[in-house]
Write a structure and sequence with these properties.
homodimer, 9 helices, 2 strands
Amino acid sequence: MKNFIIRSISGIAFTAIIILAILAGPLWYALLFFIIIAIMANEYLNLTIGSKKSVTKALAVTAALSLFTTSFLIEYSGISYRYLLLCMIPLFAIFITNLYSKEYNVHTFTKESRVNNGYEMFPFAIAAVIYTALPFSCCNLIIFDSEGNYSAYMLLFMFIVLWMNDVGAYCIGSAFGQKGDGKRGRLFPSISPKKSWAGFFGGLACCIIAAVTMSYIDIFEISTTKAIVLGIIICIFGVWGDLTESQLKRNFGVKDSGRIMPGHGGMLDRFDAALLAFPAVVIFSLLF
Amino acid sequence: MKNFIIRSISGIAFTAIIILAILAGPLWYALLFFIIIAIMANEYLNLTIGSKKSVTKALAVTAALSLFTTSFLIEYSGISYRYLLLCMIPLFAIFITNLYSKEYNVHTFTKESRVNNGYEMFPFAIAAVIYTALPFSCCNLIIFDSEGNYSAYMLLFMFIVLWMNDVGAYCIGSAFGQKGDGKRGRLFPSISPKKSWAGFFGGLACCIIAAVTMSYIDIFEISTTKAIVLGIIICIFGVWGDLTESQLKRNFGVKDSGRIMPGHGGMLDRFDAALLAFPAVVIFSLLF
């Protein structure tokens, strides 16, 4: 019960902060997501590379924040997209510092023994940037209209649908989902044994209802057809995003990505669905 | 001796193909580098993930080629930089297909045993894109001038300086470099035991001489000061690029990245220096 109250309070506070920052204006939005990306990138690196402080991790977080900041400034200040190149500096610096790291390059090189010398630091550092910073950098493309005016409502729409997916999945899954240890009715037993198909469809229904409702509210400026399509996209890619993060955690044998939110685990656990769902929405909006 | 002749012939043919394609025009240049990137990405994936065919590898090569093609079309046809987003589709598809791959997600999850379930496929696939496609995608930024006219000479300048680095390092290193097994006079004994400081400075001298010479040839349109700076950048980052690729190969216990060039190993072995040197030049040109 105490845990339930802590979970609820931190969940509501978190939701309120996001909504307020998005509504407050572009710089507040950018500041909040700057912090969120820094935390997520750090959690990802702690999971994959290890929790020890290292130059590689600092550079990877720098690269992630550079990507988000540059893509924001391209839309906000109209700087040339060529400045995206600057994000490559910390990325390639990882490569070079990796060479000089005393812990690596200590290997006995024979045809028989393949001794690991820390090269995988580089792929994980890059993955941290692509996985945690690229999705929200995409969001920068939809928060300004063609005249450069800030419009928070599309992002707000995406967050509300995403949260309603969780709500629907939890309610319907708890009420109608299969109980017990079997695989029957399970969405993806090998990665997430608790997710049921009933929960998935409950979430999908909730997403569509929320999306259609918002399409009737003028400020969102979205047609009902587009709202339904986006609702379905957010639901499906959100579930995939959730599963891919579970696969990551399972791979490294941890339950939560961090402990930043009381009762909720890490920041990555909170945004896992958004990390696939939001780019999917942005790409869909670009194409259609 | 026979090996020396094979090496020379394939080396000259390779050099000639690159020079001719760059001079022939933007589409020939793009076609050649499209092929080179495909081969390099494949070699990188074979090294890191393994040589078995897989959907992940196909998607990673697709992402690499999408990045190069999109960045080329932004400059060549003037399409919006927003189309870079499309490269994310194959990247995120890797994530999702990884979920459904039967080989993975087979794990016994206890606190004691951390059983690998193939998550690292994703970081290596992303690294393949960043490592092999991003450097040449950067080059797309310098082959068109502000009026959109194709200008091959800057890229040609970069290649010639890069090759002169190899020539200088080989000649001076063979003549004056330390012999034997000691670490004395070695540039980076833990990764590349054969490279000597004598060779490094020989390469640097050759780079500067070649750069200055080209600055006196009108078609290159480059000042002597800029030529010297770029010569130094190409030399230093070229050596780092060489070392980082050696570190990769050492990590996975292989000698050559592939067997595509008779006597020379793989495509990645040929372009390792360019992969760090060219982005460094492009970023320097952007900033100064």
